[in-house]
Amino acid sequence: MAAGTPQLPPTADPRSGFCRETKVFHNLRDPLPLPPESLPLSAASFALSLIPSPLPAQPALVDAATGAAVSYPDFLARIRNLAAALRTGAGVSRGDVAFVLSPAGLDVPVLYLALLSIGAVVSPANPLSAPSEIAHQIRLSNPSVAFTTTATASKLPAYLPTVLLDSPRFRSFISADAAAAAPQQPVEVRQSDTAAILYSSGTTGRVKGVALTHRNFVAMTAAYHSLTREEAEDDLPPVVLFTVPLFHVFGFMMALRAVVLGETIVLMERFHFGAMLRVVERYRVTYMPVSPPLVVAMAKSDEAARRDLSSLRVLGCGGAPLGRDVAERFAARFPHVEIVQVRFYIYSVVRLNFQDT
């Protein structure tokens, strides 16, 4: 066996890695080349270091409704400028929890990465939640600052310092002047520091806060980078349409994945099935993170059959298990599209295969 290849216990299943004696799943892949845990490193710094060089020619971000686009050089500049302004203009420090209550927009991925880069804790929530639910999440995360929009600001408590993403003040934060006024000493972020507090769906009780460290995200982004490098390159530029919310762990991780791989992120502020199909057609979307109900809808929809969805290569299905009958129905209608079952808290990717074993 080659050096670095994981050694499975003799009682482990060579196909799944599961050992019935210990009830432990063992990794079937080579160990990931991760940085030492003692190395000061933020999840943002690590993710941005993996972006292909030279920088991708296609946009980093696109607003599906307006067509507004942000290039990769501009995207990196906005992150750098905003990180500087958050320290000097908003007084955000390492360890501060930042509550984010905003619909999907071009500024949200920039905000996430800027906060992570200075060691602040990102805590995004559903902007459609009731004020009582938001109050509960705020009690869980105890934020020192909030980022929201004019439309959702009324749901936040008056005592919480708030920055409006649709305000001139925030626009000034991502300008070049913000970086010029920044302190020269970078923030030292430990990989063991909390990077994000994400929230459970509340299906088994009240919503719970889930704390994830920078090391968690470093490992996950390294896995994305490693897995994708093993795959053959396609003839189409990689374009990802976000049908899942950025405040959810699925959307949060998919945003990091897209950045690491130098893909174009297409964002819809509000999801509508027909609009989604038109966006896939217009922007030649190659990949979509989806939930099982969306796979069902695509498999049944007459409009989906009429649209030119030939650019689609992969659906990453997460949030819940995907039934085999649904996957087979989808595959019959879209044989050129691969379905990947994605899980996040323990990272794994399962490529669905419908052949009998």
Describe the structure.
- There is one protein chain.
- The radius of gyration is 21 Å and the shape is globular.
- Strands 4-3-12-11 form a 4-stranded mixed beta sheet, with helices on both faces. A 4-stranded parallel beta sheet has the order 6-5-7-8, with helices on both faces. It has a 4-stranded mixed beta sheet with strand order 13-14-15-16.
- The chain has 357 residues and is an alpha/beta fold.
- The protein folds into 3 domains: 1-31, no CATH class; 43-57 and 71-216, Rossmann fold; 218-351, Rossmann fold, CATH 3.40.50.
- The protein is built from 12 helices and 16 strands.
- A hairpin with a 4-residue loop joins strand 15 (338-343) and strand 16.
- Mean pLDDT is 87; it is low at 344-357.
- Keywords: ATP-binding, Ligase, Membrane, Nucleotide-binding, Transmembrane, Transmembrane helix.
